[in-house]
Each structure stands twice: as structure tokens, then as C-alpha cells.
């Protein structure tokens, strides 16, 4: 299957300024995703989409095969990601021809391993799924200890179970999306406006490889984990 890796990395960030170029263990954050894509040996092309000339230059210098200039309207704080991925694919296909599978790697998830990328793509291939997302076992359960408040401030379980659940471990298994890897069949990507298509599968990653950098504290935690070799 002809496979494209996309990495969408905009210049702006509310949590940490210019975080995609910020050094973590002496390496720009975005470079981790590029190196993982290369190490997986899955991709015909690795394409970075960014509104930042500096990000595009760093990407090309570190193994990306092509860069796409991301329009300003697709790089705001409120812009959804799917249109940015589609824009990136469309521009990559003008140069390289059509792809069968698109794998988007989030630039803020440096703890993933190439084996995670391989596993997510294998799940897509081994099923008839439209797409595959990644997640990790949830720390809170809507059936046990995740609550919502109504208009009067009265709280109740977000998803009351049919019978009383005495322990979180006995509740239906739930997962936190970790925003690390998104795998799409091309047709499904361009015929859906939502991440969940009715035929979406989940590839489970361990919690220690699922941190998504969105704050200074996240940067420090990830760097500490890398230094201590704590990702498994």
C-alpha cells in the first residue's frame, strides 16, 4: 500500500510558544516524529505541513521529503485538524501522485515508538476499518468516577451503568485518546468530516508513551522520562 506520513506543525501555541521547534534533549520537538517515521520504514513520503518557514526548514534538514505551506486559516488556535491533514495530502499528491493510506503523526507526541506506528497501520490492514486512532487505558471511568454537573450543580456519573459497579476495574474498559497517531484509508479521509466514521478502530499504547506536550510541565516531564529511560 502506498503510504504517506503527514506531520502538521503550526507555529502558534497557547500553551508553549513555538513549541514544535523547542529543544527537548537538545533536539527540536518536531524532529522526533520525523525520525520515528523514518525508522518505521513504512512510508513512501514524509511530508510536513506548517505555516512556519523555520519549521519547514528544520523538517527538510532532518529527513522530511517535502513540506507544505499551511494556510493561515488552517493554523489558528480554533482550526480543526482534519482540514489541515486533507490540505497536506492534496498538496503532497500533486507532487507524488495518489496514496492509499495516510498516517498522521502528531508533532507533540515524542514518546511514541516506531513499533506503535507499525502496529497502528497493521491494525488498519488486518481489519476493514476506515481509520485507526491511538489511545491509552483511561485513568478515570465515566461508569465509576467521572461525573458531570447539571444546570443546578447536581452531579452524577457521566455514564451510569446498568448495575452498580463497586470497583473501577469492573467497569467497561475505557480509553483516553492520546493524539499520537491517526491512520486513514484515503477514501475514508476524504469522505468523512468527523474522526469517528462508524468503522473506527483503536490501537492501544502504554501510558508512558502517550504523553502529549501542551505545557511547560509536559515538556519537563517528557524530558525527564527520556533522560531516565522510562518509556517502555
Overall pLDDT confidence = 92
Could you list the spans in which at least 5 consecutive residues all have pLDDT below 50?
Answer: none
Number of helices: 6
CATH architecture verdict of the largest domain = Alpha-Beta Complex
CATH class category label of the largest domain:
Alpha Beta
Which strands sit side by side, in order, in the main sheet? 3-2-1-4-8-5-9
Strand content: 15-25%
Count every beta strand, where a strand is a DSSP E run of 2 or more residues: 9
Order of helices and strands: EHEHEHEHEEEEHEH
Shape: globular
State the secondary-structure class: alpha/beta
Instruction: Determine the CATH topology of the largest domain.
Output: Spore Coat Polysaccharide Biosynthesis Protein SpsA, Chain A
- How would a textbook summarize the main sheet? 7 strands, mixed
Approximately how much helix is present in the residues? 25-40%
How much is the radius of gyration in Å? 19 Å
Could you name the CATH homologous superfamily of the largest domain?
Answer: Spore Coat Polysaccharide Biosynthesis Protein SpsA, Chain A
What gap, in angstroms, lies between the N and C termini?
29 Å
Number of domains: 2
Can you walk through the features of this model?
The structure is a single chain. With 232 residues, this protein is an alpha/beta fold. The chain folds into two domains: 3-137 and 174-228, Spore Coat Polysaccharide Biosynthesis Protein SpsA, Chain A; 139-173, no CATH class. The chain contains six helices and nine strands, in the order βαβαβαβαββββαβα. The protein has helices at residues 29-40, 53-61, 81-96, 114-126, 186-191, 216-228; strands spanning 3-8, 45-50, 66-69, 101-105, 131-137, 147-149, 155-157, 175-185, 200-204. A seven-stranded mixed sheet has the order 3-2-1-4-8-5-9, sandwiched between helices. Strands 6-7 form a two-stranded antiparallel ribbon. Helix 2 (53-61) links the parallel strand 2 (45-50) and strand 3 (66-69). The mean pLDDT is 92.
Amino acid at each position: 500500500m502506498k503510504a504517506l506520513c503527514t506531520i502538521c506543525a503550526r507555529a502558534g501555541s497557547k500553551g508553549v510558544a513555538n513549541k514544535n521547534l523547542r529543544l527537548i534533549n537538545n533536539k527540536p520537538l518536531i524532529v522526533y516524529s520525523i525520525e520515528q517515521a523514518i525508522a518505521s520504514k513504512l512510508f513512501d513520503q514524509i511530508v510536513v505541513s506548517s505555516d512556519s518557514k523555520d519549521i519547514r526548514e528544520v523538517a527538510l534538514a532532518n529527513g522530511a521529503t517535502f513540506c507544505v505551506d499551511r494556510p493561515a486559516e488552517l493554523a489558528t488556535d480554533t482550526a480543526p485538524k482534519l482540514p489541515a491533514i486533507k490540505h497536506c495530502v492534496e498538496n503532497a499528491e500533486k507532487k507524488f501522485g495518489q496514496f492509499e493510506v495516510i498516517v498522521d503523526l502528531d508533532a507533540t507526541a515524542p514518546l511514541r515508538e516506531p513499533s506503535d506506528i507499525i502496529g497502528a497501520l497493521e491494525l488498519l490492514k488486518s481489519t476493514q476499518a476506515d481509520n485507526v486512532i491511538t489511545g491509552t487505558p483511561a485513568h478515570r471511568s465515566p461508569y465509576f468516577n467521572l461525573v458531570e454537573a447539571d444546570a443546578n450543580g447536581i452531579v452524577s456519573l457521566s455514564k451510569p451503568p446498568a448495575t452498580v459497579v463497586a470497583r473501577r476495574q469492573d467497569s467497561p474498559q475505557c480509553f483516553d485518546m492520546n493524539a499520537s497517531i491517526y491512520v486513514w484509508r484515503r477514501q475514508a479521509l476524504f469522505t468523512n468530516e468527523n474522526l469517528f466514521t462508524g468503522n473506527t478502530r483503536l490501537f492501544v499504547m502504554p501510558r508512558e508513551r502517550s504523553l502529549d506536550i501542551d505545557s511547560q510541565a509536559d515538556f519537563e516531564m517528557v524530558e525527564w522520562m527520556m533522560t531516565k529511560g522510562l518509556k517502555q
